[in-house]
Amino acid sequence: MEKNGFKGQEARFVRRMVFIVCAVLLAALVIVGASSFLYIRSALKPVDPDDRTPVHVSIPVGSTASDIAERLEQKRLIKSAAVFRLYVRWKHESGFQAGEYELTRAMSMARIIELLKTGKSLKIGLKLTVPEGSQLVQIADLIAAKTGYKHEDIMKLLNDRAYIERLMKAYPDVLTKDIFDKAVRYPLEGYLFPATYVFADKKPPLPEIIEAMVAKTAAVLDAYQAAMKEKNMSPHQLLTLSSLIEEEATEKADREKIASVFYNRLRIGMPLQTDPTVLYALGQHKERVLYKDLQVDSPYNTYMHKGLPPGPIANAGVMSIKAALEPAETDYLYFLATPAGEVIFTKTLAEHNREKAKYIGKQ
User: Fold this and answer.
1) Are 303 and 324 in contact (CB under 8 A)?
2) Which CATH number describes the domain made up of 55-118?
3) What's the rounded Cα separation, in Å, for the pair 228 and 222?
4) Could you give the 3-state DSSP secondary structure of residue 103?
5) Which parts form a coiled-coil structure per UniProt (predicted)?
6) Are the CB atoms for 59 and 97 separated by under 8 Å?
7) Rounded to two decimals, what is the model's pTM?
8) Domain boundaries, the chain
9) Are the beta carbons of 103 and 48 closer than 8 angstroms?
10) Which of 69, 193, 242, 331 has the least CB density, counted as fewest CB within 10 Å?
11) What share of the chain is helix, strand, coil (3-state, %, to 5)?
12) pLDDT by residue (tens digit) across 141-177?
């Protein structure tokens, strides 16, 4: 009886262990399967949906699917060469054409394969380059000149609250309620990132053009989320400060030192007194700001109002954004750009006035 009872317990133990092992293996298979599914699904999507910059890739005669996969992965046009090979086998894709291609990281794997099979490169209908330091009105002029849209219609959309609110839902981490502050001149000022944009159509829909620029801003700022949090800066504050740095900087300027001057002034409650904000308030472009200009009654006038202006006064490039987040450690309170483009930094008003007199005398 005891022997039979022991055998029964042993059998139950074995069954239980087999059940546990099977359950663990099944769970592992499910996890591996789900992970593989998510990985493959991600690999089929564009590397960067917001990056429409053309990337040149050459496909030599006699290239196999594996060769093509490696080239595309090296150019960061696809996320995984292995998934590309699997996809090609599964879909029985063949007949890839040798040639020179202009592809973008905004293309899905399926779209890239389609182009490689037909031997057609990306059709570039419109190539739009937005320079750093451009103001919203200037960008509207650029779009109008390149597409034929009326400047008035472009500005109307750029200020359309319903349209902007739709953009806010799509990019909530970048477009916040700050852009609708009553003192802000244009809600999207500073949010149309300086870059080169490529569209398949010669005259793409206006919302598509504008959203591409906002999407690029969102993509750029996403890399600086931790730095913004550390500095306790909102996207609006960051783009505002970056725009001041962008407008003050010359090719030879040290943006980090310019940023340090602004930080030092903000810390002691001293007005920023930056001329580009006065010109923005005036709505004019002038070689020199006159003393009478400093009296313009505007919330953007940083001679009259302390702190940052209500919003950006232009778009800012990556260098100015980095400088706004990583200013140099200095005790400078003044800087002056010389006619040669050099920027001279000083600590006291007396030093600043001495340098100002010296270089203004050369103008």
Assistant:
1) no
2) 3.30.1490.480
3) 10
4) strand
5) none
6) yes
7) 0.70
8) 55-118, 127-222, 248-360
9) no
10) 331
11) 55, 5, 40
12) 999 999 999 999 999 999 999 999 999 999 999 999 9
